[in-house]
UniProtKB/TrEMBL annotation:
InterPro entries, sorted: Bact_solute-bd_prot1, Gfo/Idh/MocA-like_OxRdtase_C, Gfo/Idh/MocA-like_OxRdtase_N, NAD(P)-bd_dom_sf, SBP
The protein's name: Extracellular solute-binding protein
Domain annotation Gfo/Idh/MocA-like oxidoreductase N-terminal: ranges: 441-554
Cellular component terms per the entry's GO annotation: periplasmic space
GO MF, one example: nucleotide binding
Amino acid sequence: MTPEQPVFRIAVRKFGPFESAMQKLWDGYCQHSGCQLAVEMVPMDLHPLHQSLLTNEGLLRGAWDVAHINTDWLLEAHTAGALENLTPYLQADPPAGFPKGWSSSLLGMQQYGDAVVGLPFHDGPECLIFRKDLFDSPVEQENFQRQHGRPLEPPTTWAELQTVAQFFHRPAENLYGLVAAGYPDGHNTVFDFCLQLWTRGGQLLDEQGRVVIDSEAAREGLSYYRQLLQDQAAIHPQSMQYESVQAGQAFARGEAALMINWFGFAAVCDVDEACPVRSKVDITSIPRGEGLQGRSASLNVYWLYAIGAGSKHKDVAYDFMRYATRPENDKLLTLEGGIGCRISTWHDAEINALVPYYHKLEMLHQQAESLPQKANWAQIATIIDEVVLQAINSDTPTAELLAAGQRNINLLDHVFCSTMFKINDIEVPYLPVLPEKPLPIVIIGAGGIVHDAHLPAYRKAGFEVVGITNRTRARAEKLAAEWGIPHVYDSVAEAVAHAPADAVYDITIMPEQFVATLEQLPDGCGVLIQKPMGDYFWQTQEILEVCRRKKLAAAINCQLRFAPYVSAAREMIRQGLIGELYDMEVRVTLETPWELFPHVMVHPRLEIQYHSIHYIDLLRSFLGEPSSVMAKTLRHPAKALSSSRSTILFDYGDTMHAVINTNHDHSFGPENQESFIKWEGTKGAIKARMGLLMNYPHGVPDKFEYCLMREGETPTWHTVELEGSWFPDAFMGTMGSLMRYKQGEIDVLPTSVEDVIKTMAVVEAAYASSDAGKASPPGPRRNA
């Protein structure tokens, strides 16, 4: 019985030129090397290819020796350990001319630290492909000039694109204006969405690296895109059934005047001698949006050869890849209809004679954007794909679709590994979990904190703000216009009368107005109240009593508890990573611009009541209730402020040291300013810099560090780059937890009025101690 011959398996992106080129490359390689392995090449469309390589772990488990993989999937594959690190192979026996033989734009996305996980296979950014024979036709030029009063030229704006597409749309002649790739494969519509966003001056990532699709540029772009694809007087009727390859084939058959697609689908028309539109094609930049923000943009997604981590033929796989990427074989791929990646191919005389616009690749690369390198990009792309498809196939308003999509992306981010880090394989999550179904928000008040923190947080979380009211209507109207809030109300009563039944209320006014405002809210509703919970403890008691009487699900916005660095520290301590906590310190030494808070700076209880209260609440959330408090709060001799420096010492027994030191008067430059929280335990320590407070309101970057003790080793501090910051991310936590509590997702409301009254009791004790020495917190007033 003869043993079964081993098979070398290659996963191929399904596309005729790729398939023919790969077969020629393998045949040439076997002749060159003497390889006797049988080969099995399996062409697959995008979804089946991703599923086989990554979802079903084919690369990891040895089902594939070599695979075509695109840059969208690289981080996901690398994170899963599915790709062989090519660095040792490249160092021992690099491909000819590596790395200088390729543009740097085709080498960066596959590199992770010192690891290289792929070699370029096929390139070609997106571009506008058009029938130059139609645009050059004197008859077409004359007719267009007569109809539109301007010359017929390749469109440079999206409005021009639709006009030109409508002009060339002639179903009776089997000629359509524009063929699109609308098939829901998680790629084509996503790429189109990104192009619509970028060409209108938008960005896909915010400053924290989070994917943002709910923006003005996105709303404009998706609104245009949905009506374009629904325009039966401009679009090829099979567009929603075509993915990019099929759309390219339709264009090659002469069925469309225009197409936005990969450069390769233009080039294949000129290398295929049987193509009906050979020598009739040209390319140019993708149209831009209108206005000053509009700019042309392209998309740089490329395909690579990669070796599966589970392959049993890794040496053969790398040797084949070296052969396949030779200059003559890169050119072979191009002549078959793919797009070679070597600089030598781009400048090859034979190629440029065959494809006259090949030199424009350099221009497209200069305009090209890249998709985010996120391990969960495939899931995010699916969400964007669904949003775009709903836009095309439903009447749901664009803004509503994008807001819902943003919520789904945020939920995905908050359960995915990008919201945690690992210490010795121990996961440390730190971003707040958002509600499965967010509730509508009505904001009461329109101060600076609403603009700077509340609204950015709610937009980032995908929460819908349905209305706002303020004592000065003009301020509310200004915020509503800037943030897209649909309703501005003249009073709390009017806001309540028009609010959805399940609305939650966000009270951001001054404490003396809390009780009167709470009285007007519906019984049993959810409400988030700005801290502090009253200016004096008797006000705190009144606020608690009205919340109890009206059975409100009431929380105080003690948002520092949810800052990413606080949540990370809390989780590390919960898991015992630093042992028994015995020291907690908050130190703030900086210059605070109190003039930014005119209603606050005149308060007779300034520093502890309006600043150190954050840290008092924070210490309580970690350590519980102190048995007593010693404090001193002081004013500056040259400032008209009631207080601007405080020291507060908490009594938690004879082993726990807990202290707050604040100095808002350090006006001697940034060199010795500091703002941090420090936790020390029997096995390690954590330190978090609160960057927001330094150079406020601009801030400096946060910094999260930890040191874990190991026997026989010198203590070493490690820094972790966390996503998000106090503003605005922590505000997502307070509002998100209120929504989750209202809907029964959690049983305990973290910053409830029942809990935060204890924070206010400690604040009261601190003032009593500052006035007269050591004092104990008063107990809450009992209901009769």
